[in-house]
Specification:
mainly alpha, 10 helices, 71% helix
């Protein structure tokens, strides 16, 4: 692993993720996340669904698969219009930060091809590639983001003890290892088999609540 992974996964990297709760805000309002234990259950479910999907896309982009093909695959794996729009906004913001940190012709080409933004996991994987990282590192960055974002958001939403939120992430670490490994393995298969080899687990409740959340007149987070 390179130190570039630490920079990329740092919550202070200006990629816009701090404005998104990953569905946690809607889960808190619905009463499904109320404490550390329910946060852990929420993050575990997100890790093995949306997190695995994102990790697979990121790993595939880092492996060198055509990012336009991956962007289409990401669209197919994101049934919620609100989440598709958010993924492209985040991808655009990440692209801006990454082109300053690790400029590369591949990033320039993707930005020119999709000026409104590619899906964030695809951009993340291409950024990892530009930073000299491989599929495994890209998968780790995506998987960690899938759980760290909601955990940080719930600290703000519930005034949850940040030590408790950090303990949730620590307990999920072995599962995060497994998700990253599965995603990287799938990305390597996709080099020969195409994007259908990438993970596509469903998270219908996240999709439904994302659409509901997008219609709220007042909310703390964008998603």
């Amino acid at each position: 692993m390179s130190a570039a992974l630490l920079v990329l996964a740092d919550g202070r990297f200006p990629a816009g993720g701090h404005a998104h709760s990953g569905g946690a805000e809607a889960a808190v309002k619905a009463g499904r996340v109320t404490d550390g234990a329910s946060l852990e259950a929420f993050c575990r479910g997100r890790l093995h669904t949306a997190g695995l999907t994102a990790a697979g896309l990121a790993a595939a982009a880092a492996a060198g698969i055509d990012p336009l093909d991956l962007d289409a695959a990401a669209d197919a794996r994101t049934p919620s219009p609100a989440l598709r729009a958010a993924a492209r906004r985040l991808g655009r913001q990440l692209m801006r930060a990454a082109r300053a940190a690790w400029p590369s012709p591949e990033l320039d080409a993707l930005a020119a091809a999709l000026p409104r933004g590619a899906h964030q996991p695809v951009v993340l994987g291409l950024v990892a590639r530009s930073a000299g990282l491989g599929p495994s590192a890209a998968a780790y960055a995506a998987a960690y983001e899938a759980v760290s974002g909601p955990a940080t958001a719930v600290v703000r939403l519930l005034s949850l003890d940040p030590f408790e939120a950090t303990a949730v992430l620590a307990r999920l670490a072995p599962e995060l290892d497994d998700v990253a490994a599965r995603a990287a393995e799938a990305a390597l298969r996709a080099l020969d088999e195409g994007t259908d080899a990438l993970p596509a687990p469903a998270a219908p409740l996240l999709d439904i609540t994302a659409e509901q959340h997008a219609a709220w007149p007042v909310r703390l987070f964008a998603t």
